Amino acid sequence: MIPYIRAREIGLTFRPKNREPVRAIKGLDVEVGRGEFVTLVGPSGCGKSTFLNIVLGLLRPDTGEVQIDGRRITGPGPERAMVFQEFGLLPWRTVLANVELGLELRAVPAAERHRRSLELIQMVGLTGFERHYPHELSGGMKQRVGLARALATDPEVLLMDEPFAALDAQTRDLMQTELLQIWEKSKKTVLFVTHSIEEAAYLSDRVVIISARPGRTKEIIKIDLPRPRDYEMRLTPQFNDLKLRIWETIKEELLVRAG
Amino acid sequence: MRGYREREPFILGAAVIVLLIALWEAVPSLVTLSRGMALFFTTPSKVAATFWRMLVNGELNRHLYVSGLEFVVGLGLAILVGLPLGLLMGRSKTLDALLDPYVNALNATPRLVFLPLLILWFGLGIWSKIMIVFAGAVFPLLINTYVGVRNVNRVLIDVVRSFCASERQIMRIVVVPNSVPYIVAGLRLAIGRAMLGVVVGEFFGAPEGLGHVIAEAASNYVVDKVFVGVLIFMGMSLVLTMSVKKIESNLTRWRPEETKTF
Amino acid sequence: MGLGAFYDQHPRLILGVASIAVLEGAWELLLTYVVAYNPFFLTKPSLIAAAFNQQIIQGKLWKDIAISSRAFALGLALAILVGIPIGAVMGWRRRVEYALDPLLTALYASPLVALAPVLIIAFGVGLTAKAALVFLLSVFPFVFNTFAGVRATDRVLINVVTSFGGKERDLYLKVILPSTLPYIVAGARLAIGRALVGILVGEFYAASEGIGFAISQFGDTYRLAEMFSGILVLCIAAVALTEALRKLERVVAPWSAEQTSR
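Structure tokens for the assembled complex are given below, as produced in the milestone run.
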């Protein structure tokens, strides 16, 4: 199989002014097949969000390259869209105008982007809130807007940077289930970053474990649980075994850092 | 009918103001003023009568027009210069570093100190006043615009960049809307500074304008006329400041956090 | 360390110093070699430096500076003594807030410098009138910032102290005072600018001594270099006071370092 996204030997060092350079990632390899759901987990500060920004095209790696469908990426592109951790909604725009943002920047005609945005607002269950401003929404609703905005441009690849980290535990469970439903319908390729082992095991086809800083690929664990998955599946021994395997691998990294 | 508790803020606030005015009015009948003091003392009723007389006989019209013109042109120039410069300084680190010493030093110094120089350069006519109004009003506008641009959330810029936005689109979609509340707060400060410029500028050898009316009346010890001028300035400041505050509170439709003013 | 590396570490410092040096140099060279200028209308850095040396280093202006400083200090001290208690009481007692807020807000928004002639009629030319003007302009930032500081005190902290058996005295000393102090210092920074305006207006308008008088006198007699040296003194004093208070802000509230930038 030729992977759809292929990141090889990615390395990046930050050089802040007046401070020591920080080597964020070094020799990171990730491959994602078309339509696959891959999650990156690792100790905090291991550069997984940095890596996502490289794939998005906002950061340029010092070494290595990212290819999508065999083409090397050099900047942001229409086939990729990100769901941001802190939502990144424009506070002065309504829900509808926020969802329209990407289409507007692609110069899609007003009527068309309107129609498309309303469709996605319905898909994420926010019908009736089109005219609301972000500060009038709960955290979960805000991230639904973030998801709708990313999907509105119909990208091939959905990049998700700890999208549910700012939500409370129950909203989080709910959003995970809904994300799976949307993903199964749309069959997007998803690259997901989280520090929650449970979330990684529940959502993914494969989990890539990143080492402590400088981040590199430590291990890849295949999650061969049947789909569609539901909440009850999380209570099975099989699921818990997978969680344990991921945890033990990450624990080694945490101990490396602490020691 | 609503209860007293709900209206207490309004009632207490109004009561204090009414009480103060009444007390002022009553001073001459409560205490015997010395002959010198009695000559200069005025009461609210006398001030009101003088105000009415000046309004009716049209004595104020020309002065109001001149003061208003100085205020509007000076503030307009300050907006035309302050906003673009603030935007540029906010987006360009180099320009920021080059201009920062001047902006900082001039902002800390009361610009009124330049009044004698401006009178020397621009004469006693309206241009020296326009320039002092401009000098006072430009810094709050410039600095608040700058802060608004600087305080833009990095994530929002990343969001639009991820949709392949150009630098111009970033400005239009993120940076400018983000600085609007800061600019409006800056405008509120600028109005106060501009008013100060008009008042003080006209104190010194101006041939006309409301400040001139005050200064002339004071040099002839016509105290009620002085207060008429003062009250007009107060009234105009209040109306303008309230209007801008109204705009500010409308902006909270999309920005729930309080905007810091600088 | 090479110059390039030094620049990489302190780009703002280098650009700022370069910007000032280039401007002064260009100004000097332009007026020396290119433009034949009228000395009653323009001046150049070398002449200003000479005048500064004569007026300040050799002390001709010191008497005026001392006189202005006295009125400045007196008015500001009075503003602190009156403003902080009023603000604190407004913060503690809702009713006092309701009673005083409309009046004080209206006065704060007004250009109270317009009252300068009245003060001079009332107190005569001299220290008292100037100090009164300084007080009138600088008292409000103390009132409103103290008020805001007391109000912004975290309710949770009050509950914490009370739950550990703290008395009312503990609340004031351990919670309210520390959280209000940064607001008061920030208020002082605003007050200083307004106090300087008071000094300038008082001395421009009616005085026979003081730094403001000196500046306006130099202007009237077309001694531009001397006038600029006076402006420079005021500028240095204003920047020094502002920076000192910014330092103080960091000392009294190290936990909220960049709470208010600029």
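The CA atoms of residues 83 and 143 of chain C lie 4 Å apart. Chain C touches chain A at residues 8-9 (CB under 8 Å). Further analysis is deferred to the final report.
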